[in-house]
Every structure is written in structure tokens, then in C-alpha cells.
Amino acid sequence: MSIHSWTQVSPPGSAAASWVMIPDPPTAPPTPGPSHVSQLQQGPSRRSLSGRPRGPRQSVVSVRQPSVSQTSLPPVPVVRPGTDWERTVAAIRQQQEDQEEDDGVDDDEERFLNVQFLSHIAVKVRDDVPRALHVKGCIGYREAFTGKDMVTTIQTLIQRELMLAYGITTNDRRLALHIARSMQAQLWFYDVEYTGRPLCDDVDDLYRFPGDADESSGLYGEALPTGVNTVLTQCYSVTCDEGQPCYSISCPFRMVDELLDDDPASEPPMPVVDDWAEHLPPDILATLTDADRRRQDLIRELIRDEEEYNIHLDSIESYYMKGVMTEEVIPADYFEEFVEGVFNNISELRRCNKRLLENLAIRKREQAPIIQWIGDVFVAIAQEFRAAYPTYISHIEQAEKRLQDEMKSNERFKGFIDEYAEGEPDSPALQQLLHLPSKRLSQYPLMLDKILKETDKSSPDVDSLVEAIQSLRRVETVTLLRSIQLNGSKTTTWHQLVSPEIKATVPKKEQQRQALIFELIQTESDYVHDLELLSSLFIRPLCTINPPIINRERTMEFIQNVFYNINELLEYHRKLLDDLHALQREEHPFIRSISIPMLDAALNWRDAYMEYISHYPISLYHLEEEIVNNPAFKRFVEEAKNHPDARKLDIRSFINRPIPRLLKYELILKNMLGDTPPGHTDHADLGQICDILRDLGISSQHGAVASKRKVDLWRYTADLVFQPGDYVPLDLADETRSIVHASQLYFEPRGGAGWREVFVILFDHYLVITTKQEMNGVTKYQVKQRPWLLELVTIGNFDQDPPVRFSKLSSGSRLVLSPAADRSSHSMSDDFRMMFPCTIYHQGKVEEKITLYTDNLQARKEWGVKLEDAIGLRVAVSDSDRAFEMEPIAAGRFFVPGTVHPMYVPDDTPITSKITCAVPFALPDGRSLIAIGCAEGVWIGLRREARSLRRVLHIRNVTQCALLPEFGTFLVLADKDIWAYDIESMVPSSLEKQQFARPREKLNKRDVFWFRVGQYNNRTLLVFMTKKLLDSVFHVLEPVSALSANSTNLRHSASMRNFRSSIVGNGRSNEWFRPYAEFQLPCDGYDVFFLNNNFMVVLSARGFEIMIMDGQSCEGIRIPVLNTQVEPALSPIQKRIDAAKPLGIFRARSNTPGPVEAEFLLCYNDFGIYIDRHGHLSRTGESGRFIRTGEVFIEWEGAVERVVCHPPHVLLFSPRFIEVRTLDACRIVQVIKGTDLTCLWDDAEWAAKANALAGPIAPGEEGWSPEARVHCAKRDPGERPGQQVLQVYELLPTLPYVATPM
Questions:
Q1: Alpha helical stretches, state H, 1215-1264
Q2: 871 with 790: CB under 8 angstroms?
Q3: Composition bias, kind Polar residues: at what positions (predicted)?
């Protein structure tokens, strides 16, 4: 067992002593120098945490040092492994391992330093401690150092070991102080005044190493101190774990706790009254004046106040900051944010004031007992104060608010604060401590001013004191500026911050300029604060509040729609504000130029402002919609309005903030430009910035106007209220829609019973006449009549003289005007108004005329221009995006009877017969022909060659014709008889075939009203209708060649012969057709449609009936299926359907994504409806895919007489125009205008096949055809006066075609 002894050493004449453990047997201390360093390599092989050799295990006891009241060491928390220091420790160890793996030669002596040995530290300290000439008591000491120098040097040596072994922070100097005192006790260095006081971590006392000053060291020799720093060694117990003391009483982990926690030196020293006069000889004291004595008293008082102030700063860090961490009274998730928000940079202030106190102590030590100079100390420290104090004091208001909020919401923290207040009743509360730096900063100039007044004018300290006072007051000014910059102050102006003496040094214009710069910066700070409030009061709560105010799925979409790029604007203005604040802090009170930050900002934020201002109407619209439709959001907005930071401002005010702010810049800069001298650098730059801002304001207005119109469209979508049967899907949400004009007009009802106000809206595609009505605080627009499609609108007389009306406003919203009065009998006063008429025509189902009135001439002119432009643009857009082109195929041969004058007879004989039908076909040799049926026969000729037309059938009253090309049969309905002709007899391909052509056959006995040819169950069938009393009889025939030998659907029996006989009469055999089926309905039949080769739909007065035929019997199913008994709300729909005439049924293919069941479009003479494959309504308000809620019918624009399908379109023929609509949504894509428009032919068989394909047909795909599948006729003016020409056109589909809803 090793034997150890303890030695007590003390300086001569001192009662203080230190107990140091010395190994036994003691070794002779080597002479300091390189030889000693080399001997350190012979230590034990046991390695420390850092990899360096460790000394042998010792049985140690705690070393206690005497209590020294002069030592000021605030308790610093011990950080154990497992905290945030682990990363630092790991980095240090990795660095050590990297150094050990270095194969190169290492001459660094620190690699052989073992801080466990006191001798190692002593040698290193003697080499490293800084020495200089120091003064104490007006005596200079060369090669001297202070106690702080010694502690700092030791700390740099052991701080890495402290971090690795104990996790003690690098600013904890107490162990270094103990080591320094141990070396002092072994006389390794001495106090220059031999006071015997233990070394303190301050600058009050001076020390030397023996021999450094070439003077006799007396008892102090150069014997190397010996001992073991037990707290830096490892525990001998193998079960000891880092971070926690083990069972051993001498465990280093336990010793370091006792050393640091029980250190009396850690108690903060109290300020001591320095009675400087008692230490001054009477003869010298007698030479001092009263002013000199008061000056010295004031300086001592200043130092004493500074010591007390430092104690309070220490208490903030040692108790509150440490207590908050160790007691865990603040949740970990926002602990760092709380400490930063409440204490801010208090540690930086503490360091600044400690340096000030040390400098004052040095000055006191050097010049005691009479301090001659003190101003230079404050001049030097003022620069440090300027970097620390403004930051802290400007955050006091926020820190106090944060502290109060935490005390209200955190009971544990409040208890922690109250506990300290009860234990230390004489100590200031935390709130008071936080305000101490502000008070202390304001006291410095006052104290120095008192000292200056007591200082002799000839003293060199006068200039330093004056400069110090000015510097500290500048710090106060910067602090006030920083507070204004951070917290805002609308009442503070530049004139209030600047003293009259300073303002008097500059002209009045410059004062106004500086005041404007200050206003610009101040209002910019308020603006940035308001933009930040948008995030703190609205955006973040909307994202985090639970339960959510807005559905989570659309919260982000709502935030994007309402707040848009507000964060981008905020970033630009934060940068501008930081630049302006930096200028203000550096150059206040006279800022030379602001053009650089302003010009940079104006150029960078242009795009962001363009986007925001353009989007602002859309933001406001989405906000208003959410407030109206979401009561929870409305409450949220009201609560945010009552927030203290909101200043009773609504969310709309914050969203609108960027728009007036942009205009405010230009106003301030213009005024600033007026106060800037012409030669100033800002003069030209400010003009350029104003131009940029003005251009930005003008440019952004265009986007805002466009967005405003878009929002108006959205509002009209929700606010337009249609009357039953007048609903039109206006597609106002479409991006191509726009509002051309809207204003209030007047109209006079029939009978002249008063005049009424109307609100007329001119969209780019419809003209809508409404009346305004207030409903629950929301303006609704009641549509007076069905909106007018612009293609069907023509402008009437806009030049009529205005009638004079005697007018007065009634109590309601109606303008009541008396009948016209004689102008001469009344003077033109306010009681008389001239109303300017505007006449407009509409060609819809019936031709309509309306006369509206404006109350001034300019309004009428504006309406005329707007209408003309809108109609012209609509026609141009329609012409450029047409679905069909009209190509003439028989021009100039057919004339309206009575319109051909003898003197204008054309070369060829004109045909003056009404065109009723047409059939295109092709011959085997490839020639394209067309057969045209007229009232006087059938003409056939080459297509697009009118002169080739020749009459081939001389029969009268031809109403229908059809061709069965696979059978060579041409069918004609004339005078209510159906005739079958061999096509070879009409257009012979050869003379031989013409000779053997079959003679014509009559297929009916009774009058035939119409016929239809189509495909059913892969058979070509002919269906025609006759009348039997009030019943309609439908005869179904099949061409003979179409019958197969194995047919089981048709039996050649006597009954069938009788059936055939009833059709053709006389019992004669029919060589052309054979009967397939017959059925009858007790109502009028209009037509037959073949769908998908499997269904035949009969159109009758009862509606649509699906017929299922098996050759002998027929069964019918009526559609649509409306169960009015279960759903009484369907009764009005059923009544309107029953009163309408069916015109066609087509299969609709939806463009909506996903699987959609088959739908069918039922077309009536006035409207259309969609049904599903079960016959039920498919597009009602419940589904809402295409038709507005509560609306079922798709209203046609005209009085439709014929409907044909040309996938993907449906064409509705009226006498004056053709409506081309999409088949899947019935949106109008084209209007073809004309006179006496008639559909002559449509390829129904091709349309049925193309329509049966799944999905929409694109150009080039199967089922799509560039050929004309529809022919029509219309009446056009001829080349000669009075001529009326009947033209035959084919409708050619465009390639490619993209539907654009109208």
C-alpha cells in the first residue's frame, strides 16, 4: 500500500493555509524546463479519458480551502454526459484519436501534459501565464500577473479534461481557482505585497514567479509544486460509471460535486464601502479641495453601484436561468425559445459589465487611494455597450409579456418564482431584475455628469468624461431607436428624438427630409408587423387549431387562395426593414441616403406585388364566401379582431394592407424628393424609384381589374336567380368568360304603368336582364327573362330622340315617370329627366324586341359600343372555332317560286320547286351523286355541280327519300305513298342493267305519314306509319334479299300472306319487301329511332317508347321513368314532358373521369333531358354534374323542329338557326344562322354506330368521319334584285375540333 502524507504550507505572515496531498516517498522536484517535461513521459501506463497517461490510484480526501469573501465565483451548473454536451465531448475525443493515429513526429509538449499532476500544471503555467508591467498603489511591477490571469491560464489547460470527464462547461473556473491556490500555498508564486490573501479570480492583487524580476525571492524558491488533482483522476472502482458517483467516499465524481457545490468561494461578494480617506495621510488629505473629495466619493459610489449591479446580473444567471433548467419548470419543447425570449442576451450584458468592473478595479488598484482618471474607461466600454444594450433593452417589452404569459399558463413556473420571492424577500423580483439594465444605462451619463461637475477644468479627465457622456447618450439613443424599431411607436417622431442643439446645425429642409426618412422607416416597421400578424393571428391558427375551423382537406387550398404570396412580400419587406434599421442605427440622426435599399427593394418585389394585387379580388372573394358559409370561421375572424395586436382591425384590412402601402411609398418619396437638394445623391435616385413604383401601380391594376371581373363572374354564378324554365348554364366559372359591361337601366312595362329599374349584365356570350333584390343582406339578381345568346342578338335603334319625362323617385326601388309632357310647358329642371332609348332584338324561339332606357346620352353610347364589340367578338370567336363548315352542293339551280324575273332568267332552266329532302350516294364507278326531292319530283346530279342536276322522277309532293345501297333500292314518299325504285332505272350504270331493272312498287295501302330505315338485330328494316282511326299503325318490312333460309322469325303462312296483303293490297306478291312485324299505338306517332342495333324507340305523343320485337309481337317500355306517387316533386317535370313533342334520342358519352354508366339524351321540341340506362333522370340537382341544383331541363334557344346526331355533337334545326351542342353536356359550341333552314338528310345509321362506341371520338379514331353526314337547305338572296335562292349545303366537321362551351 502506498503511503501518503499531507503538508500544510502558508506564506510568511499569513494565517491562511492549504492542505495538499503529496505522494510518499516524495521525489525531488525537478527543475522547471525542458528536462522536466521529458521526465513526464516516465509516468504510469494507465490512460485517462483523453488517452494521456494517468497517475497511480491514490486514496484521497477532499481538499478544503479557506473561505475568502473577496472571491466572486457564481455557481455554474454541472452538465453530466447524456446532455447536449455529448456532441462536444465526442468531437474532442475524435480529435484526440485522430492525433494519436498520426504517424508523423509530434513535438507538441501538450501531448505529454498530465493535468492530474500539479507539477505538470505548474511547469506549463509558468511558461504560459501572461506577464506585463502592472501598477498597484502607483507602484509599477514588471513581469507581474493578476489572479485572473493565473486562473484563466489553468482553465485553458484543464477545460478539455473537465468536459470529457464531467461535462463541466468551459466557463466554470472554480476548479482552476483551487489548483491556483494549491500552487500558491506551495510558494510557486507570491503576492507582490505579501498580503497573505488567497488568490482570487480578479484583478485586485498582483503576483510574480520567483526570479522573474531579478530580485531576491526570500522564502519563495523554485521548488516544483507536487500533488495530485484527485478530481481529474478516474475512480478505482470497476463498477463506477461515468456520470454518477459510486459507493466510494473518494469517488472523483462525488468529490467534484462537493468541490463545486460546497465551495464557500461561490457565494457572491457584497459591495463594501470604501472609506478611501482613512487610508490617506493627513497631509495629503489636507491638500484636497471639497470638490476633489466629492469627486472621489462619487467615483467610489459609481464603483459600488456597479458591483451591486453585477451581483444582480449574476443572480439572474445563477438562480433563474440555472433554476429554470435544473428544476425543469419549463417544458422541453419550448425551453430554448423561452430562455431566448425572456433573458435574451443577458449573458453578453453580464460579460460587458464584468469587464467594466474589472477595468474600474484595475484603475482603482493603479491609482489608489486617489483615482485620477475614469472617463477613458467608459469611453472604451461604450462601444461594447452599443453592441449589447440596445438588443437587450429593445426586447424588454416582449420579454415581460412572454414572462407574464408563462406565469399565467404554467403553474410550476409561477410556483418557482414565488418560492424564490419568499426565500429572498429583500431581493428584487425577476420582473425588476429584467428592467435593471435599462435603468443602469440611463444612470451612467448622470453619474459621469456629476463627476464631471466636480472635476477641475484643467484635469485631463475632463475631455474623456465629456466623450464618455456623449458616447453613452448615443448608446441610449440607439437603444431607443432599437426599441422603436422592434416595438413600434406611432407617437415618436424624429424631432422628439433629436435635441434642439443638434437640429440647429442643419437647415429646415434637411430637418424635414430626415423626418420623412424617419416616418418611412417607422411606417415600414408597422407594415412588416401587420404582415407578420397575418401569420400569427390567422394562418398558423387555421393550420393547428383542433377541431379544425375549415376542413383539413381544403385548409391549405383556402390559405393559398386567401393569403396567396403574402409570405414572399413579407420576406422582401423584412430585408428592406433590416437595411433601413441598420442605416438608422449607424447614421442617426442624419441619414445620408436611403436610395440603395429602396431601389433594390423596388426592383426585387415587382413580380411579387404584381401577383398579389392581381389576385387580391380573388382573395377577398374566397374570404367573403367562407365567412358567409362557415359560422365557425366567422367567429374565428371576430375573435382575432378583438386580439390586442389586431387593434380592432378586421382580417380584410390586413389582407388589403399591401395595396395602400405601395401607394404610400410613392407619396413619401415624392415629398422627400422635394426636400432633397439638387446636388444630393438621392435626388436622381428617388425620382427613378418613384417612376418604378408608379409603373408598378399602373401595371398591377390591369391584373386587378381582370381578377375583379373574374370574381364578379363567380359572384353572379351564386347570385343569379332564374325563373322556372329560364335557367341557362352560363359557365361563368370558365376561364374564358368575362363581363363586358354592366349597369342599371330602365324599362317601361306594357301599358305604361310606371317605369322600373333593371340591372343589365353583358357577358361575352349572353345578355342577361335582371332586377336587384336584397336577401338576408346579400344582393341577388332575379333574372327577368331567359338570357339572350349574343349570336342571336342584333342591335336596333340607338339614335332615337329621348322623350322628356317628369320624374320622381318612389319610396321603393322603382323610378316612377309620368307620361310624356310638352317640353315647352315645363322648364328643364331636376324634376324632368330625359330617358335615352336603346332597342335590342333577339331571334330565339320567337323574335323579341326590348327597349331599355339610360338616364344620360353617354351611357347609351357606351352601351351601343359595348354591345357592338361583344357581338362582333363573339361572332369572330365562333367563326374561328367552328364545329362545322357549310359547303354548298347545289347552288344556283333552285329558286323560290315567284322570285325569278323573266329578264334575269339564267342559262339553265331554273328549278322553282321547294326542296324537301336529299340523299347522297356513290356509284360503283366512284362518282358522287346526290338526289334532291322537291315538290315537283326528284332531281339527281353530281355533287357540287348544280348544272348536272336532272329530274329523274316526275312525281309530286315528294317529302322523303332514302337509298338502300346494298339492295339497290331507292325509296320515295310522295303524296303519302311509298314507292320503291330500282336505282338502275334512275341512274343506270349500263344500258343492259337499265333494261332489266325492276319496275317500281308501291309498298302501302293507306296513307303513309313518314318512314324510317335502320338496323335492328343485324337486319335492315323499313318502318312506316299509317293511321287507323285515332291509332297509329307501324308497319315493319324487311328487304327480301335480307331474309335467310334458316330464318325462324318469319313464317310464310296464310296469316303472313294476309298481313302482306293488308299492306300492299290486291293480294299481289311484293318482290321488294316482306313483312317483319306490325304494331299500333293509340296516339300520333312522330318517328322511329334505332339504337345500338338492339333497340327501336318510337317517338309518339306519349313520349319515347322502347319497342322489343320478336317477329310476331311487340312490347313497349315508356321512358323516362318518373314515379310521381313516390316523389311528388317530379309531377311538374312529368307534366312538362307530357306536353312536349319528342324529336330524338341519342346515347351520350360522358367526359368525366372514372366509370360512368350509359346515359341517353332525350330531345324534345323545347328542351332536352338526360336519363340513365334504367330510364331515370341522371343529371338532376342531386348529381350536379352539369345542371344547376333544382334544374333538370336543358332549354333550347330556338323552336326546334328537327334533331340529328353527328357524334360528338347534336344539331338542333330551327327555321332561323341551327344550334350545335355537345352530346355529352349540351353546351352550345356553334350557332349557324340562316333563313328557312331545313334538315334534308342525316346519316342516322352511321350516327348510331359511332355513338355506340365507348368514350369520346377524337379525329382519326374509329367512328369519326370527316365526311358530311348532314345536309340542309336554306334560303339566300340571289345575285339579282328580288331573287331568293334555295341552297343545298352539307355540314362538314372541322379537323381537328376542340369543343369550347359557349
A1: 1244-1252
A2: yes
A3: 1-11
Residue 12 has pLDDT above 50, yes or no: no
Half-sphere exposure of 342 (CA within 13 A, CB side): 22
Q: Residue 923 gets which letter from DSSP?
A: -
> In the block, which residue shows the cell 395595396?
659
Kindly list the distances between the CA atom of residue 893 and the CA atoms of 369, 908, 915, 945, 1268, in Å, as whole numbers in the listed order: 133, 8, 11, 10, 21
Better-predicted residue by pLDDT, 1185 or 654 = 654
Model confidence at 13, in pLDDT bands (50, 70, 90)? Answer: very low
3-state helix, strand, coil in the chain (%, to 5): 40, 25, 35
State the pLDDT confidence band at 996, using cuts at 50, 70 and 90.
low
Q: Are 814 and 771 in contact (CB under 8 A)?
A: no
Compute φ and ψ for 490, nearest 5 degrees: -70, -15
How far lies 661's CA from each of 344, 520, 621, 765, 988, in Å?
A: 32, 11, 21, 38, 87
Among 896, 902, 847, 795, smallest CA distance to 1277 is for 896
Contact call for residues 1195 and 728 (beta carbons, < 8 A) = yes
Confidence of residue 1199 (pLDDT cuts 50, 70, 90): very high
Is pLDDT larger for residue 750 or for residue 1119? 1119
User: Which of 316, 307, 371, 326 shows the shortest CA–CA distance to 348?
Assistant: 316
Backbone torsions φ then ψ of 47, nearest 5 degrees: -105, 150
3-state secondary structure 305-335: HHHHHHHHHHHHHHHHHHHHHHCCCCCHHHH
Number of H helices, E strands in the chain: 34, 46
Query: Residue range 1163-1179: average pLDDT?
Result: 89
Residue type, 1046: N
Is 464 within 8 Å of 379 (Cβ atoms)?
A: yes
pLDDT score recorded for residue 828: 43
CA neighbor of 455 nearest in space, from 294, 276, 283:
294
CA atoms within 13 Å, Cβ hemisphere of 28 = 2
- Asked if 974 contacts 959 with a C-beta cutoff of 8 angstroms, the reply is yes
**Distance between CA atoms of 1205 and 1211, rounded to whole angstroms?**
6
Q: What percent of the chain has pLDDT over 90?
A: 28
- How much is the pLDDT for 923? 81
Residue 1297: the pLDDT is 41
d(CA 504, CA 1075): 119
Omega before residue 1296 within 30° of 0, cis: yes
Whether 1186 and 1179 have beta carbons less than 8 Å apart is answered as yes
Q: Cell numbers at residue 89, please?
A: 465531448
Mean pLDDT of the chain: 78
Query: Is residue 581 within 8 Å of residue 485, measured between CB atoms?
Result: yes
Q: How far is CA 590 from CA 472, 503, 675, 1032, 1101, in A?
A: 18, 10, 14, 103, 94
Return the closest-CA partner of residue 1196 out of 1236, 1165, 1242, 1241: 1165
d(CA 399, CA 411): 18
Closest by CA to 524, choosing from 664, 707, 702, 650, is 664
Q: CB–CB of 325/332 below 8 Å?
A: no
Is omega for the bond preceding 1266 within 30 degrees of 0, making it cis?
no
Please tell me whether residue 256 adopts helix, strand or coil conformation.
helix
Give the separation between CA 1223 and CA 1216, rounded to whole angstroms: 22
- Amino acid in the structure at residue 69: S
Find the Cα–Cα–Cα–Cα dihedral 361, 363, 365, 371, rounded to 10°.
-120
Cα separation, 240 vs 235, in Å, equals 7
pLDDT at 995 over 70: no
Amino acid at 1217: F
Of the candidates 296, 305, 291, the one whose C-alpha atom is nearest the C-alpha of residue 275 is: 296
Task: Give the mean model confidence (pLDDT) for residues 889-911.
Answer: 68
The pLDDT score that the predictor gives to residue 787 is 92
Phi, psi for residue 1185 in degrees, rounded to 5: -75, -40
